[in-house]
Predict the 3D structure of the following.
Amino acid sequence: MSVLLTWLINALALLIITYLVPSIHIRSFGTALIVAIVLGLINTFLRPLLVLLTLPVTILTLGLFILVVNALCFWLCASLLKGFEVSGFWSAFFGSILYSIVSWLLLALILGQRNF
């Protein structure tokens, strides 16, 4: 039940960031549900490989390059799915940061999880 609720909260967070970043568009809540699944799969399988491959750059930038990896994963998800549009890299960059913050806040408010 917790996984289902987390999935719904992440989809809601995606809809919220479309209002915060005007260059990100999602067609409907159903599309947001699919985007949340695909983004979760990308973050589960592809992101660890990208983090490992970019480890030297990440160390040189004191971990800030992870934000670029997150943006690329967000942008990849937008390029794979119809109904989810991200205008460019900077939109993906700020969208991925806001998505993380909004989903964390919603999870903390709704489920009462305090993961600091």
Notes: The chain has one domain: 2-111. The chain is about 75% helix and 5% strand. The radius of gyration is 14 Å. The CA atoms of residues 14 and 32 lie 6 Å apart.
